[in-house]
Known about the structure:
0% of the residues lie in helices and 53% in strands. It is mainly beta. A hairpin with a 4-residue loop joins strand 7 and strand 8 (76-81). The radius of gyration is 13 Å and the shape is globular.
Amino acid sequence: VQLQASGGGVARAGGSQTLSCVASGRSFKNLNMAWYRQAPGKKREMVAQIWSRGITDYANSAKGRFTISRDNAKNTVYLQMNRLKPEDTAVYFCQEYDIDLWGQGTLVTVSS
């Protein structure tokens, strides 16, 4: 499996950004996927997870603002981020949970 994340960039506080992660090489519909982020000087933390059956889970910091979803036909997992805050600034990584595989990361910068 290879993971290719995209969609990062600069956003204003209060704005929105959508990240995408395309997986290739395995049957995507059976994969459990997650988004993590790592802010400068901080540990990598889980943001959201989505299981193969569509069940989702969120970090407290993401609840009510972020939505993780998947499109199995496109082998893609998304992270819709709304009401962005400067503290959301980080490199965002997608992960294939079962084999602990990581994509290359995409930088999101939220300006105040």
